[in-house]
Design brief:
Shape: flat
Distance between the termini: 38 Å
Largest sheet: 4 strands, mixed
Structural class: alpha+beta
Order of helices and strands: EHEEHEEEHEHEEHEEHHEEHHH
Helix content: 25-40%
Length: 393
Amino acid sequence: MAYLFTSESVSEGHPDKVCDRVSDTILDLFLRHESEARVACETLATTNRIVLAGEVRASKDNMPSIMDQIEAEVRNAISDIGYEQDKFHHAHFEFQNYLHEQSADIAAGVDSSDSKEEGAGDQGLMFGYACGETEELMPAPIHYAHQLLKGMAALRKKNTDSILGPDAKSQITLRYADDGSIEGVETLVVSTQHKEGVSESDIRALITPLAADLLPDGWMVGAKNFLINPTGNFVIGGPDGDAGLTGRKIIVDTYGGAAPHGGGAFSGKDPTKVDRSAAYAARYLAKNVVASGLAKKCTIQIAYAIGVAAPVSVYVNSHGTGTVSDSSLAALFTNGDIMDLRPQGIRTHLGLNNPIYTPTSAYGHFGRKAGEAGAGTFSWEATDLVDAIKASL
């Protein structure tokens, strides 16, 4: 055994993910009315309360209708997650909306009479990553941590009397050999909210077959290395158990710590914010590099200045696995022949002006199948640049 590596995931009912879901629900609401709407929505969730804050912009014709629909959209999102607790119930929580008009100074930096020269919504650096550890070209620890929680959510929603609650976390530690190949699972950890009176053995009996089925052959561990609710009871959960905020699970949202992160969160931000759109573009390019066979793993960084359209830098690192030089790939992506990395170019290429964001708010923004949650969703997971990249080198 050369080393161990661990990643975690959190469920859609985790307090921070509740907030991500609400923020992306608001973004999709605006985009359904107006494809050029501007949204930066932050959410706070706590015991029987949800608070919205941030900046939005839409036409005067659309804004009143949108604002009138916000509370109902938020309550529907919480209902879909499954919260009907005494101290956090979709029908009863107190709701406060402090969204206000976008700063004119920020708008001036982004808007342009020439849409191709639309400036970046902020300065910042965004990373994309891909590797050959899974079919989805994602690091295996975060991939399987997500899959376990998605499976648990499906079990919970299939059975209205399920012993499981909406709030849950998973963690998986994998053993890697010297050559980077995966030898198997070292430890699995699951902490899940549950009904009163449910035992650890009840939960174990429910989710052990699920874990065994989703992991590759030979990876499943015994009970000693499969820790379930290590602290005991987990009845009080969700925002009643711990306050949530938008954007606090950025490593869960991306690569589980296997790749760098620029620091910017995704949820609640419209695609003029390069924190989101350029992170999607970087993943798209990195995935296509690996899918083309030009590298076994690839990290791409794209950096911007606020109000400036073209990236200030593009960086490529194939971690010594590439069949072409990193500098040649960086030059190829910088010149715009493969993809226009100006904000408007990214939005157009990936179809990001559409209301496609709610499905991204849980179980990762990456490693999904393009179109899995409806037309246009997860477009950045497509591998349709492979031929163009190969032909250009």
